[in-house]
Amino acid sequence: MTSPTVTPAARVPPTVAGAVAARLREAIVSGELAAGEKLRQVQLATRFGVSTTPVREALAQLEREGLVRSHPQRGFVVFVPTVADLRRHYEIRIALEELAAAKAAEAFRSRYAPPLVALLDEMRTGPPAARYLELNQRFHSELYAHADRAQLLEMITGLRDASRAYLHIYRASQDFPVALLDAEHRAILRACEDQDPPAAAAATRAHLQRTVDHVTGRLGARVGR
Q1: Distance of CA 132 to the CA centre of its chain
Q2: At the N or C end, where does the chain have fewer CB atoms within 10 A?
Q3: Which of 35, 63, 78 represents a domain boundary (last residue)?
Q4: Can you give the C-alpha Rg of the chain in angstroms?
Q5: Spatial separation of the C-alpha atoms in residues 219 and 224, rounded to whole Å
Q6: Spatial CA neighbour of 137 closest among 111, 113, 159, 109
Q7: Any idea what DSSP says for residue 112?
Q8: What's phi and psi for 215, nearest 5 deg?
Q9: Residues 124 and 188 in one domain
Q10: Residue 71: which domain range?
Q11: Considering the domain boundaries, does residue 128 fall inside one?
Q12: How far does the chain reach from its first CA to its final CA, in angstroms?
């Protein structure tokens, strides 16, 4: 396995941890680093030509994203994605998010749309994975905020954070359907603009179910390799 090259920490200190995190993220979502594989900080520092400090910071960042797990005895390991775990997360998320979309549609006003359209317009250009996922989360969060259900939004945010690793797998796929997802997002927004709660809920359910189906296929392909 060829070791990727990262600019040494001494040359670009502010970005080294981010660069290491990006390389590790790519290796994890592509399957180069196997699920459950132990991530030894000294070896990673040697591999990337940096000290252990940016490696430790990168691993902490990836842990927040759900791509690695830390264990008292084993240290950091690559997370183990499973179809069952994915479906459990999304079973709850779909129920909560279609409710949030319906409530947002009930309260929606025309002035709410332009900021959401701006997010979708940037997403449609297919920005890098990290930026796309940030915009995606902002779109859903800002839309659901109009439901005026703080507790509901808090529950959804927690579930989205817990399933973030699966979104990275989805975004990393070569056949990531930017145009199709754009159409799905705009269908949700259009239903809210029309103040049509059933349509907003249905569009949200279809959108999230497509994520489950796509990532399930990706996980199945990994098992088959």
Answers
A1: 9
A2: C
A3: 78
A4: 19
A5: 9
A6: 159
A7: G
A8: -70, -35
A9: yes
A10: 13-78
A11: yes
A12: 16
**95 and 163: one domain?**
yes
Among 91, 89, 65, CA closest to 79: 65
Classify residue 218: in a domain, yes or no: yes
- The H or E element that residue 183 is part of is helix 178-193
Domain count, the chain: 2
Residues 211 and 105 in one domain: yes
Contact between residue 88 and residue 46 where contact means Cβ atoms under 8 Å apart: no
Nearest in space to 18 (alpha carbons), one of 62, 58, 53, 76: 58
Nearest to 184 by CA among 99, 101, 114: 101
Q: Where residue 128 sits, what CATH number does that domain have?
A: 1.20.120.530
Burial class (CB in 10 A: 0-12, 13-18, 19+), 151: exposed
**Cβ pair 162, 72 in contact under 8 A:** no
Instruction: pLDDT tens for the chain, 225 residues: list them.
Output: 343 333 333 333 458 998 999 889 888 877 788 888 999 999 999 999 999 999 999 999 888 877 898 988 778 999 888 899 899 989 999 999 999 999 999 999 999 999 999 999 999 999 988 889 899 999 999 999 999 999 999 999 888 877 878 888 788 777 889 999 999 999 999 999 999 999 999 999 999 999 999 888 877 765 444
Exposure on the CB side of residue 120, measured as CA atoms within 13 A = 20
Closest CA to 42 of 50, 33, 32, 31: 50
